[in-house]
Amino acid sequence: MQIFIIVFFIALLIVFITIMKVNTFLSFLVVSLLAGMTLGIPLNQLGNSVKTGIGDTAGSLTVIIVLGAMLGKLVAESGAAKKIASVLVTAFGTKHIQWALMITGFIVGIPLYYGVGFILLVPLIFSIVYQYKLPAVYIGLPMLAALSVTHGFLPPHPSPVALASLFKADVGLTLVYGLLVAIPAIIMAGPVFARTLKKIDTAPLELFQQHEKDAYQEPGIGNSFFATLLPVFLLILLTIIQHSASNAFAGSALFAFISDPSVVMIVSLAAATYAIGIRQGMSMKHVMDIYAHAVKDIAMILLIIAGSGILKQVMTDSGVSAELAAALQKLPVHPLVLGWLIAALIRACVGSATVAALTAAGVILPLMMQSHINPNLMVLSVGAGSLMFSHVNDAGFWMFKEYFGLSVKDTLRSWSIMEMIVSVVGLTGVLVLNLFIK
User: Fold this and answer.
1) Which GO terms describe its cellular component (predicted)?
2) Model confidence pLDDT, tens digit, residues 35-85
3) What is the C-alpha separation between 381 and 156, in angstroms, rounded?
4) pLDDT digits (tens, 9 = 90+) for 423-436
5) Is the model more confident about 403 or about 224?
6) Full-model pTM
7) Where residue 391 falls among pLDDT bands split at 50, 70, 90?
8) Alpha carbon 22 to its chain's center
9) Residue 245, Cβ neighbours under 10 Å: how many?
10) Cα(174)–Cα(236) distance, rounded to whole angstroms?
């Protein structure tokens, strides 16, 4: 009976978000309170479920997500992203320009939130389209596929970081495994799939103009790559050290401190502040203004993550999580596939990849704990599912349609299928890794 109650309230959540257009955080909050009362949580304890859910979910993530947003905003504002793109386009030449843009999207997409990355890189796509007289969708889709994959699979993006926290996964290992899964997904959904889209006509908006240059210099090639990729290199290096059985340092208190993702992000942001900020002539006030705007950009994402934590906690406190795990275990479906499927279905209903991933996590979490599935792989499986079925209720769908001047039919044919390929190839990669990782 409790399972049907949860299904009803998840459906109600979807109705609130998609049909009634209620703010996502408020939807989570109201639905969670109603679900808690219906499931029999005493009213004098329901407030504690709300506070615990917010604290457990958002508490460990806020620092990482906020610092990641600051780093991404600085990479964009300083011109480092543009520098990386120009270097790669020059290196690959016009014949392989798709691959140059794909790699640009991948590198820039690691620290940059998806919406910001999209707005930043679309003008670059069209400047190349106009310069070399190339089909816009054919050229641009690989870059946007790379952005989508980093958003769904790789820390420090909010969704994978939140999933890692919920599933008690290792952020460093999730990043390493995520890179292994991401590369084939990007290639298949990007350059390979885009070959079928050369004949799609576009009528892009005429707003791809640079802002007036501020009184500071763009960073050099070395500084641009250094500042953008430093957190990735640090997390991978520390993960290798941590899993080296012969390294006594990996078990020390000092290593535990410096390998914490929050500390890694603080160090990375401090290095970037100097390398592509102060060193290029920015004042400290200007850099801090960039960081303030970055926090405003991701404030609602933090609230959505916190809201999902309330629903998860209500399910736990009511005992429905244990009942749900027992029911799911009876299904003849592998837990990794089930996590992907639940996220995919919610994504189709609500449009938001982040909401889909976090809602699915609350449903699949008890099963994952009982079935002893590798939590890092579950992060990637749910992340892959959250990218599936992007259509007319997804803001990214409409951004792509309007910026590229496409019909709904051509947007479905290009953008929606690209997201499906990313999702399916991502799940396939996770299942392959599961054969070798226990």
Assistant:
1) plasma membrane
2) 999 999 999 999 999 999 888 777 767 888 888 889 888 988 888 877 887
3) 17
4) 999 999 999 999 99
5) 224
6) 0.75
7) confident
8) 23
9) 6
10) 10
pLDDT of residue 215: 55
